[in-house]
Amino acid sequence: KPRVIAITNQKGGAAKTTTSVNLSAAIAMKNRRVLIIDLDPQANATIGLGLSATDLDSSIYHVLINPDLPLRDIIRQTMIENLFIAPATIHLSGAEVELVNTIGREIVLREKLSQVLNDFDYVLLDCPPSLGLLTLNALTTAKEIIIPVQTHFYALEGMSQLMNTIELVRRRLNHKLIITGILPTIYQAGTKLSDKVLQELKKFFGKQVFDTTIRMNIKLAEAPSHGLPIILYDPESNGADDYNSLASEVLSDEI
Amino acid sequence: KPRVIAITNQKGGAAKTTTSVNLSAAIAMKNRRVLIIDLDPQANATIGLGLSATDLDSSIYHVLINPDLPLRDIIRQTMIENLFIAPATIHLSGAEVELVNTIGREIVLREKLSQVLNDFDYVLLDCPPSLGLLTLNALTTAKEIIIPVQTHFYALEGMSQLMNTIELVRRRLNHKLIITGILPTIYQAGTKLSDKVLQELKKFFGKQVFDTTIRMNIKLAEAPSHGLPIILYDPESNGADDYNSLASEVLSDEI
Ligand SMILES: Nc1ncnc2c1ncn2[C@@H]1O[C@H](COP(=O)(O)OP(=O)(O)OP(=O)(O)O)[C@@H](O)[C@H]1O
Ligand SMILES: Nc1ncnc2c1ncn2[C@@H]1O[C@H](COP(=O)(O)OP(=O)(O)OP(=O)(O)O)[C@@H](O)[C@H]1O
Ligand SMILES: [Mg+2]
Ligand SMILES: [Mg+2]
Q1: Which string of b and e fits A64-87 if b means at least 16 CB within 10 Å?
Q2: pLDDT tens digits for chain A (255 residues)?
Q3: Å between B224 CA and nearest CA of chain A
Q4: A250/chain B closest Cα distance in angstroms
Q5: Using a CB-CB distance cutoff of 8 angstroms, which residues of chain A are in contact with residue B130?
């Protein structure tokens, strides 16, 4: 049975895209068939995997807005054999307002994904930094959630708002939705702040916090400028190690 | 004449809030009367200045949604004599959808601010990481824009989308809107990436890039956990120096 995982946090700069791109790539390298769906109008996951966010004639925007366009028609192969992407373009910034008066506006993506779901073992959804309709579509479609959290103060503050939203979605739109894990990111070893926030995360969320912490590593920030996931850009780096160990942890949950 | 400046960038984690809070504080310390308006449902600027985002009974949300509630009624004094805040609470996350069908939905904030504008020399608007109705209200209300840009690759990619949106707002809603400056933030001295992105910013935007660059400084990330701007938390830090020099640059534009 395919696993569908939303990578979400309304806090900006939590490393949602960095996690979506590099976790997808690491899982694909472990011989699972993976689809990443870019739901952010900034189209960072699309750019980070080497595609253009402006030259594409159709994207996830067109699939969400046009009832007759199947998701299958926009899925593309990436540079990694088992990794496919449903790309975003900047048209997606219009989707939030355009979907507001659509019947079943939170369910559109789930309906479209159901047609291709059995072609994949994993589907990862990269979300924008908000709790609007694109994120709600992701939370209604996903079975699992991974929450990247920068080990900084503002990031910690936003968690209760996110948890409240997840609870509402679970009650009204998607009963089986579970939190697979909370992922500490951009961890700056040796700073009091990062250690304090990491401790707070473990105190509040206990076992839900992944064993893996993603350390700050400039290679992770360089890789997207080459359109490559870290595993291809610098396989010896801390970033590649950390996302590889995250992938192992996620795979160990396979039923 | 009061200056109204929107601090905006749809890219998450660009240091919009860090800039709004610390630039406001630095300008207030130079004897200008300053109002900061928190337009982000995460209410980070509110928290960063020591207020609660949950205990307040009225906030900018109530002012935007209730035509009878004047902005004056929610403005509070901060720990700095000349600095006042119109705080946010998490109710603000409902405003985007609630405003969609309001007549003149992009103009609501401008109307409310006009009643108190002459009480201040500077008004700074902290925006959420999106180009939705809250940010559009800020761009329609402001006369000037400051764009914080992290010196990373994804941050650079998002600039053309932001510039397009600003151009549309200028044409349709706010003819006088100008870009006061592009602010390089979270600059990691000695990394190729930060230098490369800084060079690209200067190549594309020339004189629009501030002389001041905000260096990465852990003290800037620690200060919000004490509810203090950097100038009070650690006045000797690089962060305090950088935001002080930014304030001088912004004040030098005074007519
Ligand atoms: N572990 C890390 N070490 C160093 N840089 C990182 C790390 N993780 C992410 N980054 C960089 O930090 C910035 C923010 O990360 P990213 O864009 O992935 O976050 P996001 O949550 O997707 O942001 P948004 O809210 O805009 O969608 C990016 O420039 C990215 O390259
Ligand atoms: N110069 C800096 N040095 C170190 N940390 C910084 C710096 N500027 C900002 N930060 C930290 O980086 C994180 C992102 O900054 P901030 O929250 O101000 O960005 P933002 O653009 O307001 O984010 P959002 O898109 O969520 O509104 C915060 O944890 C902040 O404390
Ligand atoms: Mg992202
Ligand atoms: Mg902010």
Answers
A1: bbeeeeebeebbeebebebbbbbb
A2: 999 999 999 999 999 999 999 999 999 999 999 999 999 999 999 999 999 988 888 999 999 999 999 999 999 999 999 999 999 998 998 898 889 889 999 999 999 999 999 999 999 999 999 999 999 999 999 999 999 999 999 999 999 999 999 999 999 999 999 999 999 999 999 999 999 999 999 999 999 999 999 999 999 999 999 999 999 999 999 999 999 999 999 999 887
A3: 7
A4: 26
A5: 128-130, 132
